[in-house]
Structures are given as structure tokens and as C-alpha cells.
Amino acid sequence: MDIEVIESKKGLLRFLLSGADPAFANSIRRTILQGVPVMAVNEIEVVSNDSVISDEILAHRLGQLPLTTPEGYLLPSECDCIEGRCANCSVSLTLMKEGPAVVSAKDLDSSDPEVRPAQEEAPIVRLGEGQELELTAIARLGYGKEHPNWQPAIASYKYMPIIEIDQEARDDWEDCIEACPKGILKEDDGELIVTDLKECTMCEACSDACPDAIKVEGDPSKFIFRIESTGSFSSTEVVKKALEVLKEKFDSFSEQVEKF
Ligand code: SF4
């Protein structure tokens, strides 16, 4: 098994995983989406809300704000406290604002500076003249399998394309080249070549335009992953955490099997 980083920048990681199979690739994808715990607001206490949006919609908006997530917090189910409101398993973010103003994520004052909105400019609501908003939002750890608000990233993959070209089939490649929406086909010394195979979406527009010369397939042992972090962790951290979760599960399974 091999990994080659294609692109790594703030919030985005693309890599090629080789020598794997679809079940393994999908287990990584699903663990990223559903099995890495992150902080998100899942309760609000409203003191006053004169804005045009209701408390319920406000709760949705606050729940969708990605929060930075340090190590050390407990899931509410792991904590000894009764209400899930202690400093080990929750963080309070208070908000007090008077209009006219646009309330944004940076107006939330967190009880833990390490748990704060990852995108501080994200707007929450606009307040008109004389309107007030005062509330406390409570953030807790949770899993994407419970609610997408706890999803740390968007994770997807595609097979590495295989494009077979019969160079003898044609003298003129113009139709095939024009059919490609990604612009990655070109003629070089009378032959059709693919300039960047990883950018191919396997749309098959080229093989539809030139069925006599081009065949497009996916390689089920190579996967191009795309991980876009919401901002709770970096994309690289999301992948590492997902692999830790998978490892713990397999270690636990292995221990159980040893007892057979
Ligand atoms: S499959 Fe689609 S993206 Fe890939 S080379 Fe053909 S036309 Fe271009």
C-alpha cells in the first residue's frame, strides 16, 4: 500500500492511495465522515431574541458553525456529570449583541479559547435598530453518524482512471480533444495523450465521441481521495484521527478474537 500527496493546502488534502481495495478505501471515507468526534453546538439557552429568525433556526445556524476541537474533552456519554454541562464535556459560548449589527461567529465568547468558531466571519443573523440578541450556546463532542453538525470534513474518493487509446484508430484527434470538459487531452506528434490523468473525472465524453479509439475505466486498486476539512482540524489531522479510530476498533476486535 502506498500514499502519494497530490495537493495539500489549508483545509484541503488530495492524495492517491495505491494497492488498496474499495472496502478499505470506503472504511476510511466513512470513518472520516462518521467516526471522528468534534465539538459542535447542540443546545442553546436564549435570554432574548428580537431578530427576525426564530430560536429554532438560530439553534440550527449555531450548530452548523465548525468549532476548533482540542484534545481532552469527554463525550457526554463518557462523563460522570449528570447534565452534560461540566467543564470536562461541554463548552459555553455566550453572545450579547445589540442592533443595528450583523452578528457573526466572532461575537461568540467561549469559556475555552481553544474551542472557538473555525470561521470567525461566518454570519449568524442581522439585527435591526433596537433589536437585541442574548444567548448561551453549549458545545459538546459528538459524531457525524449522530448529526452532520459533528462531521469534521467532506471526504470522497474516485478510482484512478485508466484511459486506453488505440493510436492506430485515427489520424485526426480533434473530436476527442474537444469532447473533454477537463481539457486534459491533446495531440502530440500525431498521437493522442492525456496531460494529467489524475484530473480525469471518468465522464467518458471522450470515449463517447471516439468509441473506436478510446476506452475509459477505473482502477479498483487506486483511489484519489479528496478531504475538505470544516476547520475543526486540518485535513491531515482528520485523516490521522480517522486512522486512529479504525486502529482502535481493529485492536479491540483482535483482542476479542484472541479470547475465542
Ligand atoms: S473521461 Fe472525461 S475527463 Fe477523462 S479524459 Fe475522457 S473526457 Fe476527459
UniProtKB/TrEMBL annotation:
GO MF annotation terms: 2 iron, 2 sulfur cluster binding; 3 iron, 4 sulfur cluster binding; DNA binding; DNA-directed RNA polymerase activity; metal ion binding; oxidoreductase activity; protein dimerization activity
Assembly notes: Part of the RNA polymerase complex.
GO cellular component: cytoplasm; DNA-directed RNA polymerase complex
Gene: rpo3
Intracellular or extracellular location(s): Cytoplasm
Keywords: 3Fe-4S, Cytoplasm, DNA-directed RNA polymerase, Iron, Iron-sulfur, Metal-binding, Nucleotidyltransferase, Transcription, Transferase
Domain of life: Archaea
Amino acids binding [3Fe-4S] cluster: C200, C203, C206
Catalytic activity: RNA(n) + a ribonucleoside 5'-triphosphate = RNA(n+1) + diphosphate
Gene Ontology BP terms: DNA-templated transcription
Cofactor descriptive note: Binds 1 [3Fe-4S] cluster.
SUPFAM superfamilies membership: Insert subdomain of RNA polymerase alpha subunit, RBP11-like subunits of RNA polymerase
SMART domains: RPOLD (SM00662)
UniProt function note: DNA-dependent RNA polymerase (RNAP) catalyzes the transcription of DNA into RNA using the four ribonucleoside triphosphates as substrates.
InterPro entries noted in UniProt: 2Fe2S_fd_BS (IPR006058), 4Fe4S_Fe-S-bd (IPR017896), 4Fe4S_Fe_S_CS (IPR017900), DNA-dir_RNA_pol_insert (IPR011262), DNA-dir_RNA_pol_RpoA/D/Rpb3 (IPR011263), RBP11-like (IPR036603), RNAP_Rpo3/Rpb3/RPAC1 (IPR022842), RNApol_insert_sf (IPR036643)
Keyword Transferase: yes
EC number: 2.7.7.6
NCBIfam families, alphabetized: PRK00783.1
Name of this chain's protein: DNA-directed RNA polymerase subunit Rpo3
Domain 4Fe-4S ferredoxin-type, residue spans: 190-219
Cofactor list: [3Fe-4S] cluster
UniProt family annotation: Belongs to the archaeal Rpo3/eukaryotic RPB3 RNA polymerase subunit family.
Top-level EC class: transferase
PROSITE patterns in the record: 2FE2S_FER_1 (PS00197), 4FE4S_FER_1 (PS00198), 4FE4S_FER_2 (PS51379)
